[in-house]
Automatic annotation (TrEMBL), chain A:
Recorded topology in the membrane: Multi-pass membrane protein
Short name of any one Pfam family annotated for the protein: BPD_transp_1
Cell compartment(s), UniProt: Cell membrane
Keyword Hydrolase: no
Encoding gene, per UniProt annotation: lacF_9
InterPro entries: MetI-like, MetI-like_sf, UgpAE/MalFG_permease
GO biological process, one term: transmembrane transport
Transmembrane segment boundaries: 6-27, 57-76, 115-136, 148-168, 195-221, 233-262, 282-304, 334-359, 383-406
Protein name: Lactose transport system permease protein LacF
Family classification: Belongs to the binding-protein-dependent transport system permease family.
Organism taxonomic ancestry: Bacteria, Pseudomonadati, Pseudomonadota, Alphaproteobacteria, Hyphomicrobiales
Protein source organism: Roseibium album
Keywords: Cell membrane, Membrane, Transmembrane, Transmembrane helix, Transport
Gene Ontology annotations for the cellular component aspect, listed alphabetically: plasma membrane
PANTHER family given in the database record: BLL4140 PROTEIN, DIACETYLCHITOBIOSE UPTAKE SYSTEM PERMEASE PROTEIN DASB
From TrEMBL, chain B:
BP GO annotations: transmembrane transport
Organism of provenance: Roseibium album
Protein name: L-arabinose transport system permease protein AraQ
Lineage of origin: Bacteria, Pseudomonadati, Pseudomonadota, Alphaproteobacteria, Hyphomicrobiales
SUPFAM superfamilies found in the cross-reference section: MetI-like
Keyword Cell membrane belongs to the record: yes
Pfam annotation, one family: BPD_transp_1
Length: 413, 382
């Protein structure tokens, strides 16, 4: 009966689920108070204490059970599976899965792309979010504007992928372009305006990016040489990692900068945007940035409102201009929130699957880890490598996990 | 003083304009999809959706009435009179009688053809076709017009997607499947988490701080790790792929956020109320159901919206735990991805399908935005 009528099934499950939960809590409390440790008779006082020791666990049990079975156990089971081979009946194979994965170019492509995503999406989303939060704070229809920019949060990654596929759509030469990006592209003709927009402006942005990356990397690397810095052992790998990542980023930026000027742009030809290596990654990232900016904006806007008025007023009296007030007074005060927003978006990026799956499915060098894992798991049916790549994602998340738990504990004390 | 005031208003204008531009930029993609979902396949493939908002020039072909039935003698010639539009008038820009030159004449002109044959077309579409016996026979004369067509929209795509479409084009079943997944997966975790949150907020027991820290940790554990072990577990204990599995999975995956949000909210409730109730002899169960739950409504609503949006929009969990080989339990996100593969160029189907799946979360979003914002502010780990 249930298999034919999912709605009825769903309703029954709601009633059983909710009723069962309430019933469980009610009856187990009753059992505890009336049968196991009744608050009467010779041992009433001792019984009440015992009942109160057990009661929290009655309240916690269903949630804990779900958390342990569905989140804690899988972490260890995935770790175990990543060390076994399904074809050999689950025999222990040590790190063979990891070694095999490391030999695959597709894996390294996924790692590289994930690194790009990890840097670009949180940075741009947070920057846009901060910009919109600051701008809308000053105008009367700011709430409406915020609400409209926040709206993509409600749209599924799949829905957003369809929306942006329409934007990136390509038609054959002899037809009208119905994708807005190609329609604009065909309007550009290589004149001075096009050069300014497509070569000079991106070059300035890229050079700015390189400078920022280099200065961040330098501030990390300097710690190794300089005196008086914290030279604890566990910081050294972090510093080296940052330096390595920065060098790679600078290399990517400079090579794309050269490509921009040397290659020459194919004006007048409709482009299939999602098949241009490297750039197509950015076209996919735009989707996530479009969704996540609203999130960043909401949180940062609340933080901006929380800034004490006096600090801003004092700066105005001292003659600071609006830009100085924003960058020197406001931003430093909400740095903590910016970090929170940044890490939250980072987590979303690490798990990004739907967008890549729906738009390119990892073709044309757009693979990311989550999609790579899905590929291994359900297409190649290789649970060993699938688990190994899941563990890689877990490792990338772990620093944020530790940081969050550390902060939460500090806050509770 | 005046210069300062002037400067300030210039800056304010700049702010207004840049916010307006940003909002437009953010809305533009969604509007494109929305407009496209109301256009026919021909309209979509002939012009970009932005052109649909304005009147467009369009070439059309009509035929004069069948001369054998309609011709009337006029001296030694014959005449066919009529109106090409038959109740659907257009604004004629120019017209012609040959496919080689479709805009040779203006409305009101007379087209002279071979051997005295002629056609006159008025702006309202009425025509006079004149010729001899041989010329006015067979099929009606073709008339090409270039007309300005006002923006035209249709609900046909929605009819196809929701009712009449067959196979993959029909989203009705997927829509109900999505609802079936979403509603229990939203309600059940709330109940389970609320009890746990109460225990973590208001009951003293050893290990409480550790549990709270663990919940914060679970908040960020990637879903990807849970897929293989849990699928094996579900297959092993006989749940297999189906609704029960996906409900359990969504319930558990939503649990950390639910417990975290609710505990943070409940901790902030006034201690007096709870202690007074205890003094009056209320049990923990009574305190929870009579006092805590009603007071925590805003937090419950925040989480409900999150969980609803997340389960409605989810693709991965449904693909792994729900959709089996028969595909009878497919959800909308999955069907759209399949449509992207099979009907990649049919934007009227794709846009409408996507909009159907987006519409419900958007409605929820605009109706309950307040709670969503509150939840976001409470839920991002500080």
């Amino acid at each position: 009966m249930f298999s034919n009528n999912p709605a009825l099934y769903g309703l029954t499950v709601i009633i059983i689920g909710v009723g069962g939960c309430l019933g469980y809590f009610f009856l187990s409390n009753l059992f505890l108070d009336k049968v196991l440790f009744p608050a009467s008779g010779p041992n009433a006082g001792r019984n009440i204490n015992r009942a109160n020791m057990i009661r929290p666990w009655l309240f916690l049990f269903p949630a804990l059970f779900a958390l342990v079975l569905y989140l804690a156990y899988p972490v260890f089971e995935t770790l175990r599976l990543s060390l076994t081979d399904r074809d050999q009946g689950g025999a222990f194979v040590g790190l063979a899965n990891y070694r095999q994965m490391m030999d695959e170019p597709k894996f390294w492509e996924a790692v590289q792309n994930n690194m790009l995503w990890l840097i670009v999406v949180p940075a741009i989303s947070t920057a846009f979010g901060l910009l919109v939060a600051q701008l809308t704070d000053r105008i009367r229809w700011g709430n409406l504007a915020k609400s409209l920019i926040f709206m993509p949060m409600a749209i599924s990654f799949v829905g957003a992928s369809v929306i942006f596929k329409l934007i990136y759509d390509t038609r054959p030469e002899d037809q009208n372009q119905i994708g807005i990006l190609n329609a604009i592209w065909l309007k550009l003709d290589g004149g001075i305006g096009s050069i300014l927009m497509l070569q000079v402006l991106p070059s300035i942005l890229l050079v700015g990016f390189v400078v920022i990356v280099a200065s961040v990397a330098w501030s990390f690397v300097r710690g190794i040489i300089a005196k008086g810095e914290d030279k604890s052992v566990w910081l050294l790998p972090l510093r080296l990692l940052v330096a390595g990542g920065a060098l790679w980023l600078i290399w990517v930026s400079i090579s794309s900068l050269l490509g921009l000027w040397i290659g020459g742009l194919p004006y007048g030809e409709a482009q299939t945007w999602l098949t241009i290596p490297l750039w197509n990654n950015f076209f996919l990232m735009v989707v996530l940035i479009w969704i996540q900016t609203g999130f960043a904006m909401v949180i940062l806007s609340a933080a901006l409102r929380g800034i004490p008025e006096e600090t801003v007023e004092a700066a105005i009296i001292d003659g600071a201009n609006p830009f100085q007030i924003f960058f020197k007074i406001k931003v430093p005060q909400i740095m903590g929130t910016i970090v929170v927003v940044w890490t939250t978006i980072t987590l979303t990026v690490l798990k990004v699957f739907d967008i890549v799956f729906a738009m390119t499915n990892g073709q044309w060098e757009t693979q990311v880890l989550a999609n790579y894992m899905y590929d291994k798991l359900f297409r190649a049916n290789d649970w060993g490598i699938g688990s190994a790549s899941a563990i890689v994602i877990m490792l990338l998340v772990t620093p944020i996990l530790v940081w969050n738990v550390y902060n939460a504990r500090k806050e509770m004390k | 003083m005046a210069s300062i005031a002037g400067k300030k208003s210039a800056l304010t204008w700049a702010v207004h304009i840049s916010v307006a531009l940003l909002v437009l930029l953010w809305l533009f993609p969604t509007i494109g999809l929305f407009v496209s979902s109301f256009r026919t396949a021909d309209q979509i493939s002939s012009s970009g959706w932005w052109a649909a908002l304005f009147p467009a020039e369009q070439n059309e072909v009509y035929r004069a009435a069948d001369p054998d039935d309609n011709r009337v003698a006029d001296g030694d010639m014959f005449v066919v009179k009529g109106n090409i539009f038959e109740g659907d008038p257009r604004d004629i820009r120019s017209w012609g009688v040959s496919s080689r030159n479709v805009s040779a004449y203006q409305p009101g002109d007379t087209a002279e053809m071979k051997d005295g044959e002629s056609v006159t077309l008025q702006a309202d579409g009425s025509y006079v076709w004149r010729g001899n016996d041989k010329q006015l026979s067979g099929r009606g004369q073709r008339i090409f017009i270039t007309a300005t067509v006002p923006p035209e929209f249709t609900l046909g795509n929605y009819t196809t997607i929701l009712f009449s479409g067959s196979g993959q084009d029909n989203m009705a079943k997927a829509f109900f499947n999505t609802l079936t997944v979403t509603i229990p997966a939203t309600i059940i975790p709330i109940v389970v988490a609320a009890f746990a949150a109460y225990a973590l907020a208001w009951m003293e027991f050893p290990g409480r701080a550790l549990l709270i820290a663990a919940v914060v940790g679970f908040l960020v554990v990637p879903l990807q790790l849970a897929l293989i072990p849990l699928l094996r577990l579900h297959l092993g204990i006989g749940i297999g792929k189906g609704y029960l599995g996906v409900w359990l999975a969504h319930t558990a995956f939503g649990m950390p956020l639910a417990v975290y949000l609710l505990r943070n909210y409940m901790v902030g409730l006034p201690r007096d109320i709870i202690e007074n109730a205890k003094v009056d002899g209320a049990t923990d169960f009574q305190i929870f159901t009579r006092i805590i739950l009603p007071l925590s409504f805003p937090a419950l609503a925040s989480f409900a919206i999150f969980q609803f949006l997340w389960t409605w929009n989810d693709l991965l969990v449904a693909k792994v735990f729900l959709i089996d080989a028969t595909g009878s339990t497919t959800v909308m996100t999955n069907q759209i991805v399949e449509l992207l593969g099979t009907r990649g160029g049919n934007w009227e189907i794709l846009a409408t399908a996507a909009f159907v799946s987006i519409a419900v979360p958007l409605a929820v979003f605009f109706a309950m935005q307040r709670y969503l914002v509150r939840g976001l502010l409470a839920g991002s780990v500080k």
